[in-house]
Amino acid sequence: MRAQTIGIKRARTFRRALTGAELGLWTRIKGRQLDGYQFRRQHPIGPYILDFYCAAVRLAVEVDGYSHEVGDAAARDERRDAWLLDRGIRTLRIGTELSKRPDDAARTVLDEVRRRALDVVQPRAPSVTS
Questions:
Q1: Which CATH class is domain 3-119?
Q2: Which residues pair with 34 in a beta bridge?
Q3: Is the pTM of this model over 0.70?
Q4: What gap in Å lies between CA 89 and CA 33, rounded to an integer?
Q5: Within 10 Å of residue 54's Cβ, how many Cβ atoms?
Q6: pLDDT, tens only, 3-31
Q7: What does residue 61 show for φ and ψ, rounded to 5 degrees?
Q8: How far apart are CA 93 and CA 101, in angstroms?
Q9: What are phi and psi of 3, to 5 degrees?
């Protein structure tokens, strides 16, 4: 079975088993609720499955619970973030405390989306040379 197919199947499984923190945030960002930006949940990209992804501003949103605080999780998260950044995707990590307040977490995501919208490079018209 191709790796992409495996990633899609895993993402489908994850969509059915969102954590409480993920579900709380998802109910506030789904359906273009944040300034009309569309988010996908449990979006597969390369070898990873992103908790939430906004393609318009190339933003991954990760809800980090306790498991991200133990063992070598921080190093894995750094490798993952670097891999995504090499592809032009920035990562916003929502920590445990903020994830317990879904409205505040959604506002944090909205602030980052607005910042990223300003940073997304727009195609420029070719310059005219004489």
A1: alpha beta
A2: 37
A3: yes
A4: 21
A5: 24
A6: 455 555 555 555 555 676 788 899 999 99
A7: -115, 120
A8: 14
A9: -60, -40
Residue for token pair 């991954």: 60
Tokens of 27: 């109910």
Taken in order 109, 113, 115, 116, is the CA torsion positive or negative?
positive
d(CA 51, CA 44): 9
Residue indicated by tokens 């090499």: 86
DSSP letters along 31-100, please? TTTBTTB--EEEEEETTEEEEEEEGGGTEEEEE--GGGGSTTHHHHHHHHHHHHHHTT-EEEEE-HHHHT
One-letter amino acid for residue 50 of the chain: L
105: helix, strand or coil: helix
